[in-house]
């Protein structure tokens, strides 16, 4: 039994790993939201009863999206190594982990966004249609704006999900807190790393939740009567 | 102003095709209010959605100022939509926008620049009497106020036709009145042609010049409200006029018994007393009553007459503008 790693060393390693995790989660969330939101809008517009119904293509794309969503993340990691190499030239490190994280989250965001948009009441959308608004304007000023608070929450949910997946990305040498916990904590029986990473992950998840709640409330213009 | 010609619409249903509209023809003169009534499932909403250009009919035409709007698409369709202001069924306001922001929506769609937009929004909030609620969000407004904002929004881009589907169905009687007043003002002050779909005959009673009764996707009655009430056999008369109870015992005491419909101040006030004095008959009211259709007093009375010249008196009433239907003795069903 060797003596425990000094807390100061644990702190230094954890700090670096936290930076890597935040980088992976931040960038992959950004990419997933940027690509997943248009996907969700498209899914909503082309759904039966939507503004631009395309039943056949909708079904097809919907099937692919659900396939992507049901794919275990580890399988996706392996499957996407060649895509990562194509995009980055290598498959190791936090940046490389962003590729499968983002790709895996796009269908997830797509469905979340579609669900959120479908909550906008039909008569609200139709009212906008009857004003002669273009589809683009309806998407922007009605669908997205009316559901902005829920969209912000969906982004928070995505970031927290990606925080979990980023821990798994350590398997392909992604680095970050999960990697640290597995390599230093689990494989070398170093409890201090386990504790440190668990605490930091919990704090990050709580922070994401707190911020997304705050922002969602901030963008929610609905004001209920105080009576 | 707006005409609907031979409109047909079928939906696929679980037990074969549902014919929601089966050759509907309507004609609404400029600046009048048409009420489209009928039982649930009659096709009222389908008609409204077709006229709102939200649903494409299988066949037929919808003309505003002569132009058929049914076959349009793309930018032409969007431009045509601006000619028809729509108050959709149900809650239709953007909850993330203030009342003023909601009213501005059609102006944004039409590309009206900011300053002009604000002036127009202020005009419309004034028209619906909600200037003080400009900055309120829909969740802070009552149901009636929300509907008035929806009407203001429908009118914002100066359409020539205003279409409302069940604008008062979720409201209590008091609030219903405030929404109907706003529809009436829109016609009076802006000269728009109003088409209001409703299952509530009270709406027809209060603001409609014309009425179309829809049943099973067909127009079974269509005309001026005041003409239709004089037709004792019409559904409009049956649902708008005061009921007349049967009272055989009382009726047995008279030579002639008839139902008389009187329209307008002059007729309601003077016709029956004058008939009495002119023909020297005894004339008593056995039932019925007085009501108002818009501003016009309308009465339906069951009258009993005694005297030699009872038939002449009834004929004279009919000639003078009352609608007379005899229920006992004498020639049946004489109407003016
Ligand atoms: N989108 C639809 N799909 C299938 N059937 C419909 C649809 N809309 C209306 N219908 C049918 O058409 C008929 C008329 O409906 P509607 O116009 O809503 O009547 P109303 O508004 O007079 O109650 C009903 O039988 C209804 O079930
Ligand atoms: Mg209806």
From TrEMBL, chain A:
Any one GO BP annotation for this protein: D-methionine transmembrane transport
Assigned keywords, A-Z: Cell membrane, Membrane, Transmembrane, Transmembrane helix, Transport
Membrane topology: Multi-pass membrane protein
Ranges annotated as spanning the membrane: 21-40, 60-80, 87-108, 120-139, 151-173, 193-212
Keyword Signal recorded: no
Protein's cellular compartments: Cell membrane
Family indicated by similarity: Belongs to the binding-protein-dependent transport system permease family.
PANTHER family, per database record: ABC TRANSPORTER PERMEASE, D-METHIONINE TRANSPORT SYSTEM PERMEASE PROTEIN METI-RELATED
The protein's name in its UniProt record: D-methionine transport system permease protein
From TrEMBL, chain B:
Gene3D superfamilies named among the record's database cross-references: P-loop containing nucleotide triphosphate hydrolases
Entry keyword annotation includes Membrane: yes
GO molecular function: ATP binding; ATP hydrolysis activity
SUPFAM superfamilies, sorted: ACT-like, P-loop containing nucleoside triphosphate hydrolases
Pfam families: ABC_tran (PF00005), NIL (PF09383)
InterPro entries the UniProt entry points to: AAA+_ATPase, ABC_transporter-like_ATP-bd, ABC_transporter-like_CS, ACT-like_dom_sf, MetN_ABC_transporter-like, NIL_domain, P-loop_NTPase
GO biological process, one term: amino acid transport
Taxonomy, superkingdom: Bacteria
Record-annotated ABC transporter domain positions: 2-241
Keywords, comma-separated and alphabetical: Amino-acid transport, ATP-binding, Cell membrane, Membrane, Nucleotide-binding, Translocase, Transport
Signal peptide: none
The protein's name in its UniProt record: D-methionine transport system ATP-binding protein
């Amino acid at each position: 039994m060797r003596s425990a790693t000094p807390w100061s060393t644990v702190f230094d390693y954890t700090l670096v790993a936290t930076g890597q995790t935040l980088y992976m989660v931040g960038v992959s969330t950004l990419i997933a939201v940027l690509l997943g939101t248009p996907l969700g809008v498209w899914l909503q517009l082309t759904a039966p009863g939507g503004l631009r119904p395309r039943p056949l293509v909708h079904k097809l794309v919907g099937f692919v999206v659900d396939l992507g969503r049901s794919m275990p993340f580890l399988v996706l990691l392996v499957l996407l190594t060649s895509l990562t190499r194509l995009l980055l030239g290598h498959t190791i490190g936090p940046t490389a982990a962003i590729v499968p994280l983002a790709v895996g989250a796009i269908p997830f965001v797509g469905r979340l966004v579609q669900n959120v948009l479908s909550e906008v009441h039909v008569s609200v959308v139709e009212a906008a249609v009857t004003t002669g608004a273009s589809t683009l304007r309806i998407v922007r000023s009605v669908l997205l704006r009316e559901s902005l608070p829920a969209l912000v929450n969906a982004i928070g949910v995505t970031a927290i999900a990606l925080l979990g997946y980023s821990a798994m990305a350590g398997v392909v040498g992604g680095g970050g807190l999960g990697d640290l916990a597995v390599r230093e904590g689990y494989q070398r029986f170093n409890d201090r790393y386990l504790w440190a990473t668990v605490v930091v992950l919990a704090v990050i998840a709580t922070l994401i939740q707190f911020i997304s709640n705050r922002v969602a409330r901030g963008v929610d213009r609905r004001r209920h009567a105080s009576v | 102003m707006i005409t609907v010609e031979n409109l047909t619409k079928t939906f696929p249903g679980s037990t074969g095709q549902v014919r929601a509209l089966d050759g509907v023809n309507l004609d609404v003169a400029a600046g009048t209010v048409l009420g489209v009534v009928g039982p649930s499932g009659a096709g009222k909403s389908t008609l409204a959605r077709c006229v709102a250009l939200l649903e494409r009919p299988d066949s037929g035409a919808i003309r505003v100022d002569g132009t058929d709007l049914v076959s349009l698409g793309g930018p032409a369709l969007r431009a045509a939509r601006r000619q028809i202001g729509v108050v959709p069924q149900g809650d239709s306001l953007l909850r993330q926008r203030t009342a003023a922001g909601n009213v501005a929506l059609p102006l944004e769609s039409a590309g009206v620049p900011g300053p002009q937009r604000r002036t127009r929004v202020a005009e419309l909030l004034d028209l619906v009497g909600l200037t003080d609620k400009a900055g309120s969000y829909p969740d802070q407004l009552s149901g009636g106020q929300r509907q008035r904002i929806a009407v203001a929004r429908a009118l914002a881009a100066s359409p020539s036709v205003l279409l409302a589907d069940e604008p008062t169905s979720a409201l209590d009687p008091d609030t219903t009145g405030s929404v109907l007043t706003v529809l009436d003002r829109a016609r009076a002050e802006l000269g728009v042609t109003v088409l209001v779909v409703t299952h509530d005959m009270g709406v027809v009673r209060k603001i409609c010049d014309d009425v179309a009764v829809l049943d099973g996707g067909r127009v079974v009655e269509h005309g001026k409200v005041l003409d239709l009430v004089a037709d004792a056999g019409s559904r409009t008369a049956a649902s708008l006029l005061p009921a007349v109870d049967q009272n055989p015992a009382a009726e047995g005491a008279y030579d002639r018994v008839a139902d008389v419909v009187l329209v307008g101040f002059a007729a309601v006030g003077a016709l029956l007393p004058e008939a009495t004095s002119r023909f020297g008959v005894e004339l008593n009211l056995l039932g019925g009553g007085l009501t108002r259709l818009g501003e016009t007093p309308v009465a339906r009375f069951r009258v009993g007459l005694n005297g030699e010249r009872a038939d002449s008196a009834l004929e004279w009433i009919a000639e003078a503008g009352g609608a007379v239907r005899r229920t006992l003795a004498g020639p049946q069903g004489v109407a003016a």
